[in-house]
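Help!! Second protein's tokens look totally different from the first
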Amino acid sequence: MCQVMSKSKAKITIKLKNYLEQLEVSAYTLGKWVNGVSPQTVYAIANGTRKPSLEALEAIIQAFQDQGFDTKLEDVLELET
């Protein structure tokens, strides 16, 4: 017998602003740390006015790690199903 799975929409939420607040780091400071992404773009992503590309997410996470934070994708994104 075949089971039918109900379709639910997955929702990705950017948690970067909350993560920055938790670390007591400003979006402005993060913008200076990130290589290859403009500070304006980092600020817009942090404030939720722009969706990040995968490349921007990589650069943001790398910037945190370069500053000594043990940042993972789950710290800046949340997947709701």
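Here's the second one for comparison:
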Amino acid sequence: MSGTSSEQGGSAYEAAEIPQVSIGGASPSGGYTVDPDGAPRLIRALKEARAKLASISRLHEGIRDVPMPEDPYSTAAVEVIMRRLGEEPGGYAWANKAAITQLDEMIAKLEASLKIYQDAEERNRRTFGRGM
């Protein structure tokens, strides 16, 4: 099996020829690679997704103020719904909080990786660009 993607139906470029910003693990199965030119757009999109998730994660707070029904069946149903919406493990607010944390970590890793890549590119330009 050759290293080019064109034989597999993809691009004619080898992965090593395309500059990439890595985030996550060091193994091929751990983490992501992102084209440095697309990284700022991805960071913006992740920040927008985080903001939307943060805004909807507060929706459950308004439901807490709903008056409890009088009959025991409705009360039990409301209590189950409130647990499902709440911050206990498995609840809606709990899941949103975990997703926001993951987005924050991904954004931070992507920004740090992009900075490392850009710094290396700048050093290379200064070092090797003098003779040009």
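Reply: Different proteins will give different token patterns, so don't panic. Residues 1-19 have pLDDT under 50 and may be disordered.
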